[in-house]
């Protein structure tokens, strides 16, 4: 039997030949994420993967190979959304006066959501979208925001800046309402929410002699607020999870 020549031997591709493909894949993945931030920020979290692909200048198949559905893409972007919230909380609690921190928190949250419809969708429909993501991510948001907000409220009341009959769930409901104002007015004027926030802030401010309207009936507690978010048309219809 004749020995095979080098030309007859099966050729094995060198490992290095695949490296550019891996780099291309990672580059495409980052392009998809960067583009999704823009598309979701402009059109909201209901934007399709087809829209993201078109905006990125990629084939739809390329996008679907990296992210099999929109839920997977939202999940990948969640950390960026979370970082934005963490930054706002850190800035708020760092301010020397709690009232200033509380107003900064509300203002900055509305500013970020005014610029980013995707973040606004996340705030308005947190269960709808967070339930699509990895388990307990809704709890991550709550664990970051709730302690800081409760502390700011308590300290602002001790300082005499925030009316004493306001409770944390009141501020939560008002903030959700304000996000609704941002969403409702954005098509006509993306900044007009500031006017309505000023009215809201005046309603929260303590006044000498207690010259404020009595708040009635009793405020919602945390569990009732969870029920509201669950039954709301922008949320899910699932039974709310019991709080530990």
CATH architecture of the largest domain: Orthogonal Bundle
Task: Classify the oligomer.
Answer: single chain
Overall spatial form: elongated
Low-confidence stretches: 12-21, 235-244
User: Rg to the nearest angstrom?
Assistant: 25 Å
Please, what is the average pLDDT?
80
CATH superfamily of the largest domain: Tetracycline Repressor, domain 2
Q: How many strands, what sense, and barrel or not for the largest sheet?
A: none
Derived structural class: mainly alpha
Please report the number of helical segments. 11
What string gives the helices and strands in order? Answer: HHHHHHHHHHH
The total of beta strands comes to: 0
Query: What would CATH call the class of the largest domain?
Result: Mainly Alpha
What does this structure look like?
The chain is mainly α and 244 residues long. It has two domains: 51 residues, Arc Repressor Mutant, subunit A (Orthogonal Bundle), CATH 1.10.10; 155 residues, Tetracycline Repressor, domain 2 (Orthogonal Bundle), CATH 1.10.357.10. 65% of the residues lie in helices and 0% in strands. The relative contact order is 0.09. The C terminus is likely disordered.
């Amino acid at each position: 039997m004749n020995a095979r020549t080098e030309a007859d031997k099966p050729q094995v591709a060198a490992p290095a030949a695949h490296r550019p493909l891996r780099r291309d894949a990672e580059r495409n993945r980052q392009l998809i994420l960067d583009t999704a931030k823009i598309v979701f920020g402009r059109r909201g979290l209901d934007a399709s993967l087809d829209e993201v692909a078109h905006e990125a200048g990629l084939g739809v198949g390329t996008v679907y190979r990296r992210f099999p559905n929109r839920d997977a893409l939202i999940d990948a972007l969640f950390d960026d959304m979370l970082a934005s919230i963490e930054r706002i909380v850190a800035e708020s609690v760092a301010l020397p006066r709690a009232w200033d921190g509380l107003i900064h928190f509300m203002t900055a949250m509305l500013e970020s959501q005014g610029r980013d419809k995707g973040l606004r969708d996340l705030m308005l429909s947190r269960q709808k979208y967070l339930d699509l993501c990895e388990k307990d991510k809704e709890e991550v948001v709550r664990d970051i925001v709730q302690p800081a907000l409760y502390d700011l409220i308590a300290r602002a009341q001790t300082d005499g800046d925030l009316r004493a009959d306001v409770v944390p769930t009141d501020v939560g409901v008002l903030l959700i309402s304000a996000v609704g104002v941002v969403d409702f007015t954005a098509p006509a004027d993306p900044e007009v929410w500031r006017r309505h926030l000023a009215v809201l802030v005046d309603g929260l401010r303590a006044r000498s002699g207690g010259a404020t309207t009595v708040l009635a009936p009793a405020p919602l507690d945390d569990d009732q607020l969870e029920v509201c978010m669950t039954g709301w048309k922008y949320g899910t219809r699932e039974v709310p999870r019991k709080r530990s």
